Each structure stands twice: as structure tokens, then as C-alpha cells.
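Materials and Methods. Structural model of Cytochrome c domain-containing protein. The 516-residue sequence of Cytochrome c domain-containing protein from Kangiella japonica was retrieved and submitted for structure prediction as follows.
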Amino acid sequence: MKNTLLGLATIAIASASGTLIAKDSSSPSSHHSDKIVGKAPFVTLTAQNLDQANTPIHPFINSALPNPPKNVYSGNLFQLRHDYPSSAAEVKNPAWKAVTNNGRITQQNAMAYVEALKSYVSDDMRKLIYNYDQWNASQEPWWESIWLGTEREPIYGFYVGSGFPAETLTDQKLDLTTYVLTLYDKTAAATLGNIWGTSLKSAYNPNITNPGAQYAEGSVIVKFAFVTPCGADWAPMEGTASVPIYAPLNESNGSGNNPDTSKCPNNGSAGSTADPSLTNIYMMQFDIIVKDSQAAPETGWVFSTLVYDKDAPGKDAWEKMVPLGATWGNNPDVINLSSDALTPPAKVNTQLSQNWINMNSPEYARSTLGWDGRLSGPNDGAVVTPAWAGSHYYPKGLSSAGCLACHSSAQYNPKSVSTNQPNMVSFLLPSTTQPPQVINAPLSSTNQALVLNEPGSKDWMKWFQSRAGDVPMDSGQVSLDYDMVTAFKAIPMWQAALQAMEREDAAKASLTRKAQ
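The predicted structure was written out as C-alpha cells:
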């Protein structure tokens, strides 16, 4: 996030490598540009610096990139599905409800609950991965958010998720980039329709209010995270599923930047940071979240993550996607400030009664858990390296907000368009400011660290509450029911489009005045 990217003067944005840029020119202790590379790698590129766009961005485009030439790729292409249902489909007797007997999810039944969710989506996800030429977007029961066309590549619609420097994850020898794709089922998609409608007029004039922004019971949202290295470059990905994308070389893609080092086919090196090329990416993580207020009465949501395990039994990579864990609350009553809780890899605290981690999942997937072992997948960025928190410096990183804590900041500032205030008044991580700041490491004039609140403090704990989906993190905001795609990507891009239109109108008016 870069300030005017959200149409605002003080919003953080991610660089093209997917790593955080914090900017606050009013503070001498803050810095920007490449000084934060690697500190918070999950923060994604948003809107491609749309503050400099010369024309308004269209909400319904599939991809701003050209389609690949036929001699490069001749298969199916991404088609944005935005004919959102007018009402939420009722979910009758889902398998995950049978696991809990319409009651609460627990550490004891969480594995079966996650496996039931996986079973619910398996046929469709298998088709998407293995039989994409048979995927007819207009007939499949999955929809996507509008406004993301400038970020999506044209084959699958993936966009940059994260950039990880080498050695971030277990056995990771090269930099890597993740690419993500988020899909909403027929129940969840109705909420996108409540917000954005289905017409061009409504897309530019969204209804970002409650209860319209709340998801119906049974809503399911899924997200793929694929990585650039194959198994030859990163051993944990040996044998996983691969799909092609058509995208420019990302600056954090170690495979593409090191063609003589990488052993992966179509590693992106045929293109450049400006020119797209066919690039293979490899399945690492799959998230499933479900609105289930019986299982999770405090938050209304169960978040679950599956990861690829090359050593798991199964005939293909989809069967080898195993549960990493699930979370359905933030356990604000458990405040553990021990080194094991804060220093990655965080030790899993089984006293977190609203959190479950599969200790048989692969080591790389458990190396980036959040504070005290709260669920956070390898794509999700709970670990900030290095970090300042209060008066303490964490050179080896600090385990911070997990999945649920991060998504709890999904909210909309209704004053942001008219007053140039930030769209998100709190960041995704428990930072001291929004946008976040960095300051020098002790006795260093070059090494920068992201500034977070003191662990366990009142300000830190704001991210670790178990709020209902209609309760915002900050007063005066519209809560977006844990939907970070809408909060962090779609709304900023809509606001950028409005600003581009305003600039275009102002330019036309100026020309008219000069002509007179």
C-alpha cells in the first residue's frame, strides 16, 4: 500500500516484490522504499501504483495484461465471474456441521472439521487444478471480487500474494514469490453482490454498510497460494501440482532472477519485470474459511489452512494437502510473553482453546505461526523480521498476528473518500501507527525494523480479541466481517479509480477553460 494508492496521504503500500513499504514523511524516524524489504513479506502489491494512472480503472476487466500468444499458451483463460447471486443460498446439512453435531468446534474435533471442509470443495478444486480446460467460469459455483483486474494475470487470475527472501522458510535457498487466488461460493458471493452490485453504476457506488457487508451462515471462501520454486529448487515442493501463469517477472522471484541457479522449467526468466512470460507456479497452501456461528459463537468464523506435504499418503498433490490447523477465536485471556511464544518458530500453546495446530504437518509450514502458536500459514506473514516492539528489539523476528487477528482489522472508514483519511485506520499487524513505521536497529544506521506495539499491551491486544463480524476493530468504522480481500484490495482499488476519474475530469475542465 502506498499513500495515494488508497487515495489517501498516509497509507502504507507494498512494493512490486510484495514486501512492505511504509511511508510517513512527517516523522524523521520512519522510512520508505526498499528499506523495509523482508520485514513483513505478506503485504501485497495493490493497484500497481494507481495514483499515477492516467485513466480510470474498470472494475470488471479480467486482467490488464494481454493474453498470452497462442504459440505460448492456447488453453483456458480467466473469466471474472461477477454475476453475484441476489440472495445467499441456504446451506443444508453441511458435513462440517455433522462433525460438531451443530455445536462448537474444539481442539479434539478440529481435524475432522477441516477435512469435512476440504471434502466440500474437493471436486471443484480438483477440476480447477487438473482439468482447467473443462472449467467454465459462468457455470462453476464460484465467484471472485471485482476491481482486481490490474493485479490479475490472464490465465488463472492469480495475483501476487507475498515475497519471501531466501531462508525465511525451512530449507528455502532462493527468494520466492507466492501467487494467490480467492474464490467465494454461492452463499458468500451474495455479500459481494450486496456491496458491489452487478452493474457498472453500482460498482462505482458501492453499499459498504452493515448488515450488507456481513456474510450469511454457511458462507465458504477459499484461497490458493502457489509458489515460484519447484521441488528442485525447494525440497518441500517436490511432487506438488503445478499450473501456468502469464505474468511479469516479480522482483522477489528467486527462480526467475537466477536462471543459472534455478532448476525449474518456465521459471519466469524468459520475461522481465515489464514483459510477461509463461511461468510455472506450484501449490503450497490452501485456506478455507466458513461462517459457522454455532461452531464459533464469539467470531462467527472458522479459519483453516491446508499445506502441501510431500511425505503424506495420497495419489496426487491434492490428496497430500494436509491440515496445518484451524482457529475460531483469539483467546484474549491467554497472554504468554515467554520467549517461546514470541520468537519464531513460536511454540504451540495448547492452552489456546480456540486454536488447533496439526503437529504432524511439515516443518516449513509451522515455522511462521503467529504469537504463541496461533494459526498462520507460510504465505500469511505473522512473523516480522526484524522487529521493534516497545523498548525491545527482535533481531530474529517476532511472531505476531495470526490469520484471525489479521483479518479482524478488515473494516472500512466511511470518511475516507470525502476527507482523505485512511481507508483502514488500523494496519493488518499490531503496529504502533498506520501506516506502519520502521526505525534503525540498535547501533545500526542501515538495518531497519518494523515498529510494533509491546506484546501483551492494551494496544497489542486490540488485534487479539474475539469480535463478532459486525463489530469493527475501531470505533466509527464499518466492519467487513473478516473479509480482507474487500478491505485491503477491492476498496482501495475502487477509491483509486475514483481519484483517477477526478483527475481526468479536472484535466478536461482545465482544457475547456483554456479553450475559452
